[in-house]
Amino acid sequence: MNLHRMLGARAEEGRPIGVGLIGAGKFGTMFLTQARLTTGLAITGIADLDVNRAQSSCALAGWPAEQTVIGDLAGADNSGPTTIGDDAEALINNPSVEVIIDATGHPSAGIHHCLKAIEAGKHVVMVNVEADVVAGPLLARKAKEAGVVYSLAWGDQPALICEHVDWARACGFKVVCAGKGTRYLPQYHGLTPESVWDVLKIYLNVDENSDINPKMFNSFLDGTKSGIEMTAVCNATGLVPQADGLKFPPASRFELADVCKPQSAGGQLTADGTTECVSSLYRDGSDVPHNLVMGTYVVFEGETDYARECFSQYHMLQDESARYAALYRPIHMIGLELGLSVASAALRGEPTGAPICFNSDVVATAKRPLKAGEVLDGEGGYMVWGQQMPASTSLQLGGLPLGLAQGVKVAHDISEGARLTWSDVVIDQTDAAVKVRREMETAFG
Hints:
Strand order of the largest sheet: 3-4-2-1-5-6-7
CATH architecture of the largest domain: 3-Layer(aba) Sandwich
Mean pLDDT: 96
Strand content: 15-25%
Distance between the termini: 37 Å
CATH superfamily of the largest domain: NAD(P)-binding Rossmann-like Domain
Number of helices: 15
Number of domains: 3
Largest sheet: 7 strands, parallel
Number of strands: 17
Low-confidence stretches: none
CATH class of the largest domain: Alpha Beta
Structural class: alpha/beta
C-alpha cells in the first residue's frame, strides 16, 4: 500500500489531485470531512442543485467558512477555496478537475454525468450504485475505451466485497459466496416511507422528528439496496446471482461458512460462486448474536486436504466440514474511506472495483396492487422494491430496471408481487438513460 506516499509526492509537486464532487448529501458530506485533511487531494468544486445545502454540508464536515465560496464552477481552481455551484457540467469540464465523483443517488443523473465526464477525459468514481446497476457495464467499457477509469466507491460495501473476492482469488482460493450483512425480515419488502419509521425507531433509535430521509432508508430495509449492491458485485467480479435472488438467511459472523455454501454441502445457497446477504435477525424478529449487520464477507473453499488443515491450525472461521472458510470485515465507513478510490484512479489508473460483465440485474417488483395510470415512485417508495436476478432472466422477462421505475406511468393493472416489465409502463424510449440502458442490453445481452 503506497497511496499515501504517492499523494504526498503530488502535494510536494504542487499539483494535488483535483476532485469535482457532484451531490453533497450524506455520502458526499462524509467524504468532505476527510478530504479536507488528506494530503494531495484538492476539492476543486462541489456541484449541488441546492448550493446552500452544499455549503451547510461543508460546515457540518468541519470546513472553516473561508474554505468555501459560492461561485462559477467553470473557473474554479485548486489554489484557493473550494467553489460551490449548481452547474455540474461546468465542474465536469473544468480543466483543474481530474476525478469526478457522482454521489447524487439518481440513476439518470449519474449516467448523464458519467458520460459527460468520460467525454471530458475525467476519471469517474460512481458512488451512485443505482446508476451502476442500470448501465455500469457499458459505462465502464466506454471509460476504458476513452483511457479513463470508471470505479465503484471504496467505503461502500460493493467495492469492499470486490476486494474480498480479489484477495481470495489472488490467493488461489475458489470463491463460493460473497456479500454483506443487513437487517431483514420477509415483511420488510412491503415497507413504505411511512411505515419504515416503525423499524427505524427500534433500529436507529430515531423518530419522525429526525433529519433522516425515510425514502432512502426504506430502500435499505425493503430489500432494494441489497439487490442493487449485490448486482454491482456480480457484475464487477463475474459472480452470478442465485436463480431466485437473495434469500437473506440469518447468520452470525461465525456461521458464514456453514450458511453461505451450497445446499449440496449442507448450506443454504442454490448456486456456487454467488452472492448473498445475511440477516442480523432471525425470522421471529430476535437478534442474531455476533451479527454482521454493517459488514462484508467472502466464503472460499480449501481444495486440498493441506489447505483445510491450515484453516484449522490458523483458526480460520471454518464450516463444520473444514472445507469452507470465511473472512469478514465487521464495518464499512461509507464516504470516510472514499479517498482511496480517488487516489487509486488518479495515481494508479486502477478502479476499486468496476463492472466487467452483465451477470446480474435488479427488476422493479410491485409492493402492492398497482392501478393503470399510477406513476411509479421508484427506489424506497410506496410502490415497488428491487429484486436481484440473473441478467439473462431479466432480459428474457423484459424486466423493468428498478433504476428506471420512477416517474413513469403504469400501463395497466398489476398484481402485488409481480415483477414489472417494460411493457407494464409507459416508457419514453427517447429518454437518455433509457437509450443507454437499451444500448447496454444490446452490447452485453
